[in-house]
Amino acid sequence: MRSAAVYALMIASTFAVVVRVIAAADVQEGQNVGGAGARAGTVWSGVFTSAQADRGGTVYAQSCANCHGAGLEGADMSPALSGAAFMASWNDLTLGDLFERIRISMPADRPGSLSRPQMADVIAYLLRANQFPAGATELPTDTPALRAMKFVVVKP
Questions:
Q1: Do residues 99 and 146 touch, judged by C-beta distance below 8 A?
Q2: In the CATH scheme, what is the code of domain 41-151?
Q3: Among 13, 61, 120, 124, which is disulfide-ready with 53 (CB 3.0 to 4.6 Å)?
């Protein structure tokens, strides 16, 4: 009887240790969600800098304007990247979703040819063009961090 009680105590102690280890790993993982320096928020939180949007304008002119128009108005089969239709298309999604769309499919004639910093710069340019405020910190270039940033049309 005594050995059964000792055995049960050992199992309970082991279980408690395993639970603590898993909980600690979850906390640590939660702190790292989004990569180093991840910032949660919305596009209204000043998630890009003016300098980053300026660089994005240069990349946009070189790599995107041929299809989407110099003024982001869209053309032929390419959608506008500013205005009501663009805003409605991305409302309630994340900047990570937008980043991945660009990464996988843009530019249409050379998908995947833009670097991660160039894609983040273009997104900053699009945000500024759609009247979202700039801030003091650049938009990150890693998808998990961008997934913590929500694209919302109405200011919270």
A1: yes
A2: 1.10.760.10
A3: 124
